[in-house]
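cron nightly-structures :: item 1 of 1
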Amino acid sequence: CSSDLVVFKSSKLFFVMSIRLLFGMANKKTGAQIRQEFASCLMIVVGLVAFTYATSAVKVHSKAETADASGDVLLGVGAIIIALCCDALLYVGEEKYCFEIYKAPSGEVILFTYGFAALNSLVTLITSGGVISALAFIEAQPIFPLLVIAFSLCNFFGTHYLLGIVSEFDSNAAVIVTSTRKMCTVLLSFLVYPKPFTLFHFMGLLCVSGGIFIYEYSRILHKRLIKLAESNV
């Protein structure tokens, strides 16, 4: 289910916080703030797991879908964990090297990132021999390029604001924002595809909300302590 995948991938918050510690990017924070951030991370991940369990419990599977699926599940989980590690390294790398060390603007990061991705896609399309079929598809569906342009613009602005969060705050805050957005996506799916809203859904929502509150409270408290220490100097 796409909802399960969306929610499960939101646990990359744990991977991002762990990799930030390994990179030594939490040295400026106090031990109390680090503990509060991990507590908020734990609450968010537990809430997302509860949401995943509830979403899976209300689905109806056929016997053919449930038979001999353990190997596929393990393979899928392993692939998602690898993807989460790569995604976390991307967030932390952008924060540490692009914004902290080189002070690069978000527009420049987007230019190089998506420029390389576009070049890679073009080379793949040419080497796979799909250029002719792609042009034929565009000729048969003239509205498709307009949809691609609209999607690209939305993606650009979304990425621009997300990188702004990374540069202004840190990668943890950016992942919390994206995790909240994904939770809202799943919640909105209940309106589009009516299904039972169980106790586990409610508990997961409470845990995620509580984790976000703890993280924001810790961040604001840390800023106040810094200002107080500077005023006493």
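cron nightly-structures :: done
The first helix runs from residue 2 to 9.
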